[in-house]
Specification:
The protein is an alpha+beta fold. It is built from 13 helices and 18 strands. The radius of gyration is 23 Å and the shape is globular.
C-alpha cells in the first residue's frame, strides 16, 4: 500500500482509530492510538512525536522525544478491536536529525538487509520461523518479598488424568508423547486452525500447524518464508493473533521457552535461505545438497553461535530448554538429521529451491528483528572469511563415546554466559553499522541488570525443598 491507498482504506472501512505499533528493545510490541482524522499523507513523512523515555532500553529522560513514522505497506484492519481500527507498524526516527533511531530493532533489521545487498553476496535473505508455544487454561504466578510461586493448568495436561471433571473423559496427552495426536487427544486443533485462518486474513501465510511433543497444550504454527524485515514483522503479528484468539476462547498463551519442568520446551526453529533474484544460493553439490557458500554460511553461524545465543535465547528461562535431551539443540555442529545439532539441513526434497539452513537454537521469546539480523551477519561473516563448518555430526549424540563428545562444543549454559560471549565476539555485528557498539552495550547491560541479577538475587521455590530444614 501507498499512503494514499491507506487513507482511502480508512475512508472505505469507516475507520475511527489508527493504532501505531513499534518494537521496544527487549522485543515486545508497544502501541498508542490516534483518531483517524489525524492521519494525513504528511504523517508518513514527518511522523508523530512521542515520549520514548519509558520504552524499555531506549532514551534517557533528558533525551526522551522521538518520532514514530508509520509504514504504509504494513497497514491492516485490526481484527480484535471493538471500534474500526487500522494498525500500522512504525519506524522510529530522531526528531532533530530525522534519521533512523539506532536502538530501534526494526531499523537494525532494515540495515542488515541493506548490508547484505551491499556485499554483493545475495539480494535477499528469507526467513521461515516455526512458532512453538503453550496454551494453558489457567496461569497464576506472583513474586514478592515473602512468597514466590507459579501455577499452570491445562485441560489436556497429563497431570489431570485423575482429576474429577464430572466426567473426566480421558484423552490427556502423555508427557513427551504429544507429537501429532488426533483429536480428541489434540484438543487444540480447532483453536490453531482459527489462529491460522486469522493469520491468513491478515496477510500471513502459514505452512502447517500441529500439536507439539509436550503435554499441557504445546502447539506449533509454521510460517512461510519472507524477506528478513517482513518475517520479523509477521512474527510479531502472529504472536499477537495467537494470544488474542486464545484470550477470546478463555485460554492463555505463553511463548516462554520452558514453562513446564520435565517435558519439552518451546523453540522457534528458524529456516534461512539466501537468493540472488530467483537463484537459490545455498544449493550445490556438497554435503546435503549445499553449495560452498551454504557451507560457509553454516560455518559463520556455528563460529558465532555462543554470541548469537544472546539474541536467540534472550531469557534466563531459555537455558532451561537448552539442556541435553528433549531434542534440545545443544551441540555446535551441523547435520542432516541429528536434532541435537544447532544447525540442521533439511533433506525432504532434492529441489535446489528447497535447500535451506535450519538454525534450531532460537526460541520465540527472542526479539525477531535482532535475532534475524544477527543470524544474517554471522552467515555473511562465514561466507566472507570462507569459514569451514568442519565435519557434520550425523551420529546420534547419545551413541558418541566420551572422547568424541568432548570434541563437540555446546551452547552456553546460561544467559550470562551468552552475554559474555557476545561481549567477546561482536565485531561481525558492527559491520555496515548494522548493530552499533551502543546497541551491543545496552543489550548486555539491560539483560544482566534487569534479568540475570534479578533472578540471581531472589530465592527460588525449589531452594526451600532443598534447604529449608538444613
Amino acid at each position: 500500500m501507498t499512503p494514499k491507498e491507506v487513507l482511502a482504506l480508512v475512508r472505505q472501512r469507516e475507520v475511527t482509530t489508527v493504532d501505531l505499533r513499534f518494537m521496544d528493545f527487549p522485543g515486545v510490541w508497544q502501541h498508542f492510538s490516534i483518531p483517524a482524522e489525524a492521519l494525513t499523507e504528511d504523517t508518513f513523512e514527518e511522523g508523530i512525536g512521542f515520549d520514548g523515555s519509558s520504552v524499555v532500553g531506549w532514551r534517557a529522560i533528558n533525551e526522551a522525544d522521538l518520532l514514530v513514522v508509520p509504514q504504509a505497506e504494513t497497514a491492516l484492519v485490526e481484527p480484535f478491536s471493538a471500534q474500526p481500527t487500522l494498525a500500522m507498524i512504525c519506524n522510529i526516527h530522531d526528531p532533530i536529525t530525522h534519521e533512523d533511531y539506532t536502538r530501534d530493532p526494526r531499523n537494525i533489521a532494515r540495515k542488515a538487509a541493506n548490508y547484505l545487498r551491499s556485499t554483493g553476496i545475495a539480494d535477499t535473505c528469507r526467513i521461515a520461523p516455526e512458532l512453538e508455544f503453550f496454551v494453558f487454561d489457567d496461569a497464576r504466578f506472583d513474586q514478592n518479598g515473602h512468597q514466590a510461586f507459579y501455577h499452570l493448568d491445562s485441560e489436556e495436561g497429563a497431570w489431570n488424568r485423575g482429576r474429577a471433571e464430572n466426567p473426566n473423559l480421558g484423552y490427556k496427552a502423555r508427557s513427551g508423547m504429544g507429537y501429532f495426536p488426533m483429536p480428541p487427544t489434540d484438543r487444540l486443533a480447532d483453536l490453531r486452525s482459527e489462529m491460522a485462518r486469522m493469520m491468513h486474513e491478515c496477510g500471513i501465510q502459514t505452512a502447517s500447524h500441529h500439536h507439539e511433543v509436550a503435554t499441557g497444550g504445546q502447539c506449533e504454527i509454521d510460517l512461510v518464508d519472507q524477506s528478513l524485515v517482513v518475517a520479523a514483522d509477521q512474527v510479531m503479528l502472529a504472536k499477537s493473533i495467537i494470544r488474542n484468539i486464545a484470550f477470546r476462547r478463555g485460554k492463555t498463551v505463553t511463548f516462554m521457552p520452558k514453562p513446564l519442568h520435565g517435558d519439552n520446551g518451546s523453540g522457534m526453529h528458524t529456516h534461512f535461505t539466501l537468493w540472488r533474484g530467483d537463484e537459490p544460493l545455498l544449493a550445490g553439490p556438497n554435503y546435503a545438497g549445499l553449495s560452498d557458500l551454504g557451507l560457509y554460511a553454516i560455518g559463520g553461524l556455528i563460529k558465532h553461535a555462543p554470541a548469537l545465543c544472546a539474541f536467540a535465547n534472550a531469557t534466563t528461562n531459555s537455558y532451561k530448554r537448552l539442556i541435553p535431551g528433549y531434542e534440545a539443540p545443544t551441540k555446535l555442529a551441523y547435520s542432516r538429521r541429528n536434532r541435537s545439532a544447532v544447525i540442521r539441513v533439511p533433506v525432504y526434497s532434492p529441489s535446489p529451491q528447497s535447500r535451506r539452513i535450519e538454525f534450531r537454537v532460537p526460541d520465540a521469546a527472542a526479539n525477531p528483528y535482532l535475532l534475524f539480523s544477527a543470524m544474517l551477519m554471522a552467515a555473511i561473516d562465514g561466507i566472507q572469511s570462507r569459514h569451514s563448518p568442519g565435519d557434520p555430526l550425523d551420529k546420534d549424540i547419545y551413541d558418541l563415546q566420551p572422547e568424541e563428545l568432548e570434541n563437540v562444543p555446546g551452547t552456553p549454559r546460561s544467559l550470562e554466559e551468552s552475554l559474555d560471549a557476545l561481549r567477546a565476539d561482536h565485531e561481525f555485528l558492527l559491520r555496515g553499522d548494522v548493530f552499533t557498539k551502543d546497541v551491543i552495550d545496552t543489550w548486555i547491560w539491560y539483560k544482566k541488570e534487569y534479568e540475570v541479577e534479578a533472578i540471581r538475587t531472589r530465592p527460588h521455590p525449589y531452594e526451600f525443598v532443598l534447604y529449608y530444614d538444613a
